[in-house]
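Batch manifest line 418
LIGAND: pyridoxal-5'-phosphate
JOB: complex structure
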Amino acid sequence: MDWFSYINGELMAERLSVSAIAEQFDTPLYLYSKAGLQAGLEAYQQPLKHYPHLICYAVKANSNLAVLNVLAKLGAGFDIVSVGELERVLAAGGDPARVVFSGVGKQMHEIKRGLEVGIRCFNVESETELERIQVCAEQMGKKAPISLRVNPDVDAQTHPYISTGLKENKFGIDIIEAEAVYKKALTMANIHIIGVGCHIGSQLTTREPFIDALDRLLALTDNLKALGITLEHVDIGGGLGVRYHTETPPSPESYLSAVIEKLKGRDLTLIIEPGRSIAAPAGLLLTRVELIKKNDHKAFAVVDAGMNDQLRPSMYGAWHDITAVSLNGSESAPVVYDVVGPICETGDFLGKERSLQIKEGDLLALRCVGAYGFVMSSNYNTRNRAAEVMVDGEQVYEVRRRETIAEQLAPESLLPTS
Ligand SMILES: *Cc1c(COP(=O)(O)O)cnc(C)c1O
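JOB STATUS: finished
ARTIFACT:
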């Protein structure tokens, strides 16, 4: 991650001082590196250079328009899960013909919009959804391109909240039943079958579950061929993990080489939907130490970012490295702190038992928060959502300004007086 490194004890974002950026834009602040995002996407593009493919970045990981625009310009497609995300992709200059639409609860108006702009494919998650798409396409006099998202029943061996490919999860069509649903789709006048896919979970740290799932998809593909249904693509979803702490996930290159090996000799385009592995390493959350609070048992660093800004530690017990932005000017010995936010919840922490050399007013950086960071933020405790900036070489751009209290209050109203 050479886009974030220390020079003379000062954390740099590409060629800029992180402290100076925090001074300029205030904290809490999400900071993204354009070079980091590019490297994230290129790590997938390079190994696939000689294989027909489409990389559909999972918009939900980080949907800032500038982030989407950087990726769109490099040729990325997009995996969306709502019409809102579709509008973001369009506003960011993304190509609708490179969009796949996932999600278990697509509404009629969302399907309609997808057909209107000509997305590449609907990833269908149930038979009833298939019927809904048929109705919508018929009304519009169109043919809807579809792929079934099957549930291959493999254990992704990740956190239960982000495991999606087991029988008990809500996602996808049971792989045993998929053949019957394809047969049904074949009889529908406004449905065009083009593929099959799955997404088995997130933050996977080994290749095996992906390859098991792919094997099952390919067996299904063979069975379908025997029925006269020839697919154009196989979509293996996203889910490749990143190193937050001590994890050692395979590189995209290592993962994809195993995938390409399996696909050899088949006439199938590969679609993948990585989110976290592209965006997470490209982002920092900057926060300032407001107060240091000690009792007999513990020391707390109370910072100006909370669980409303960064939910992963309290929701998943996730680990993010926390480092001082400046390693200079702190002669004191390291102290073990719980780094906590100002929100009235015990679950409001960013990191527990972290050894830091800090004083009040110092800046801290949470690492690897470019994915599932800002997008999961809320206004809990009527806190304004953070600003977001993107660094490009020697320039920094505000890509979302800080919210104001007035904006938060604007949609609300009092009861009329009687
Ligand atoms: C969330 C999601 C992804 C992206 O997962 P990552 O772990 O961020 O790579 C891809 N596809 C679908 C259908 C998803 O729901």
